[in-house]
Amino acid sequence: MVDSHTVLWGQTIVYTAYCLAILAVVEWFALRITTPADHPPKVPPRLFYSFVGLLVLIGVSLHIITFNTIPWVPDDLHGDSVQAARTYPIIVQDHRYVLPEQQLQVPCGQVVRFSVTSGDLTYGFGLFRSDNSMVTQMQVVPGHPNNLVWTFQKNGVYSIRSTEYSGPKGDAMIVKDAVKVTGCSVDDPYTTSAKG
Amino acid sequence: MSTKETQPVSPAPRHTGSARQSFGDTLLHGNEHAFAPRTLTAMQKLTLKYVVFGLIYYAFAAIEGMLMRINQVQPQELLFPERYYAMLTAHPLVGIFGSSYLIVFGAFTFLVPYLMAKPLWSYKVATWTLWLIVGGVFTFWLDGFISHYAPLYTLYWPLPADFSQFHPLSGAIFITGIALVMVGTGLFVLNVFRTIAYTPAGWEKQPSRELLTDALGLSTIGQWLRGRRLKAEHEHKTPLAVAAIARGTVDVAFNVAIILFTGVLILVYMVAKLTGHDLAHSAVDALLYKNWFWWGLDLIADGLVLVFVAGAWYLLAQLITGRPVFMATWARLALGVELVVSWTVWSHHLLSDQAQPAALKVGSGEMVTAFELITQGLAFFITLATLWQARPLEMTMPLRFLLGFALAVPAGIMQADAGLNRVLHNTQWVVGPHVHVAVLVGLTMTLYAAIYLLLPILTNGAKLWSERLGKVHFWLHLVGGIGMGAFMGMAGLQGMLRRTIYYDGEYTPYMWLAAVSGALLLAALACFLLNIVMTLGLKGAVGLFRRSELPVEQLVPAAGHD
Asked: Where are the alpha helices (DSSP H) in B389-466?
């Protein structure tokens, strides 16, 4: 069951491997160009064209892979046409979130929509686990609908935090334990249990 | 660049110092007394002044960055939130406009006429550019320091005009400082294009139109559309590096227009407030504003910086190896593609804006942005191939710093993905492995390479005080830059936001490691500055600000001049 935790660990491994590889290549290159060549050094054009092909392949395949492996992408790109089982209208104004109920009750496995509107500034809307890792987020732009369509697959309690700077007054825009997901067969191990 | 256009400058150094020069004597008179500012032309002095102020502002940004790093380890009372956020607002603006712009503009103000083998169009305009940027940066920095105006560089509407948090006068002074920088930048644009195209007094008429269209790549596009053979490198009217400078300068011009337009809009609200009128924020559409402002801002991050850096790599590789650039036609093509790509990628900053059309997110935000992997990858490959074909090379200071890049662009491509952006947007990942690695390891190390390479040309043969200290500078900067980016990135992947103060020690281990890396960067800067001061001497540094007796049209002293 892929969630943001899985995606971010995957990214950590891939990017760390890339960085180590590129550092090794540059180190090898630095050593080689300072030593005399056995024969006249020549870079064949086919190596250049192969490299161009490799870059194109990587650039395109990254998005194809993420589109097909990260579960929230299709809903995210077609959010307006997705039917949601529940919609939670939330207002942000004067650096405060106003929720329709003290703790939003979210059913497992159903598409839900967080519909957030701003009455003044540009804010952010993010859901975070109790270990501070992020579940999801969006920008909240005044004068526009800001709808985040999401399907939860694990039980847990999540906090809302602004993910966008809105001036010094927005220094602590956090609503602890604002969202509770229940009804799943598995718990999110990185956040407060929904049973509590 | 043809060989006839790169006449090496080799003025005779004056080695009058003793074999064992004392520290005090070196500090006062420079290494081996080799630097004599009275021999410098006005253009050399002006270029060095750009670099001096650029380094001063780099120190501003580095010290501010270190203070913020400390605050991320443990929030400090001294940096109560308003002061911290004011610093967070000033830090990138001082770093980019005060440091990078000044050093890059200074180098290009010298290199365009140097490579075109003709005088600069206007020395006076170049002087105005310097002082407008120096004054503008100091104006907005001081205003932020005193009044804590802190809408960040993003200026998301209507935050810059939120007068419940910021005084309109402090905002007006801040925006005026930015406007001064933009006017100076506009004058730089004018000077670059006029220098490429104009005919100096007493010269045979220059083919202005052909020079400009060649530099911008328009003539190549025309040939391609007509199905004609593309020019060989030696057939071009402008060297490859000048083509890169010209194309990057197009983005500089657009950027000036957007920032000035936005600044005037914000100023209207401030002036109205100061005169007792409240204008409705809703008169400006926040999403439309975000689109145009990011379009303009991205011309820096994804435009001129990438084009300028690629051009600088090509030039440095040529100067280091003394050979033409590998696959130069492709290099020109990639510079042109990068320019067009830079006009169409802004939407990757709006992947988390739900009202942004999906077509823009996928088209501009993902697909076109992925082209940067290709264009920068080509620049990387071409530079390395140029160096490779000149084996064996001596590992000099410029070469050492030139090799320290290639980490930041893939990090940017990863966050410019609809799936990943949902959990990366506005986290420390964006500002660590992408922004700071790009700026510190990509851009700044390229600038250091250029400074080390151009130092003898600009100083008529000053000799670097300590190669060993230069190596220490290199390793401290490289390890510090990569380390800081890496630890910020690790915290970002654990959910740490980029513009948030954490009061409960949520990310303390990562922030300690990032702070230690930041300290290495500061130590690297101290090594570099010490090396430069000991190379030039304090008297030499003061001498930069004395008027040159040589004619302003002269780039470097004529052979035999003492």
From this structure: 397-402, 408-415, 418-424, 428-429, 445-458
Q: Is the CB of B374 less than 8 angstroms away from the CB of A55?
A: yes
Give contacts of B404 with chain A, Cβ < 8 Å: 26
CB contact under 8 A, B370 and A37: no
Asked whether the beta carbons of residue B403 and residue A18 sit closer than 8 angstroms, the reply is: no
Please report, for chain B, how many H helices and E strands are present, in that order: 22, 0
Q: Closest approach of chain A CAs to the CA of B531, in angstroms?
A: 24
- Structure token digits, residue B56: 């001063």
- Phi, psi for B116 (deg, rounded to 5): -85, -5
Looking at chain A, which residue has its C-alpha nearest residue B414? Answer: A62
Contact at CB, B287 and A36, closer than 8 angstroms: no
Can you tell me which residue has the tokens 């959990």?
Answer: B423
Q: Strand A156-161 and strand A174-182: pairing? A: antiparallel
Which class is A84-182 in CATH? mainly beta
What's the pTM value of the predicted model, to 2 decimals?
Answer: 0.93
Of the three residues B251, B267, B284, the one that is the final residue of a domain is: B284
Domain count, chain B: 2
pLDDT in tens, chain B (562 residues): 333 333 433 444 444 444 688 999 999 999 999 999 999 999 999 999 999 999 999 999 999 999 999 999 999 988 889 999 999 999 999 999 999 999 999 999 999 999 999 999 999 999 999 999 999 999 999 999 999 999 999 999 999 999 999 999 999 999 999 999 999 999 999 999 999 999 999 999 999 999 999 999 998 888 888 888 878 888 899 999 999 999 999 999 999 999 999 999 999 999 999 999 999 999 999 999 999 999 999 898 888 888 999 999 999 999 999 999 999 998 998 898 888 989 999 999 999 999 999 999 999 999 899 888 888 889 999 999 999 999 999 999 999 888 766 666 677 778 888 889 999 999 999 999 999 998 999 899 999 999 999 999 999 999 999 999 999 999 999 999 999 999 999 999 999 999 999 999 999 999 999 999 999 999 999 999 999 999 999 999 999 999 999 988 899 887 654 4
Domain containing B441: what range? 11-40+424-550
How far is A22 from chain B, CA to nearest CA, in Å?
Answer: 7
Do residues B35 and B97 share a domain? Answer: no
Do B35 and B84 fall within a single domain?
Answer: no
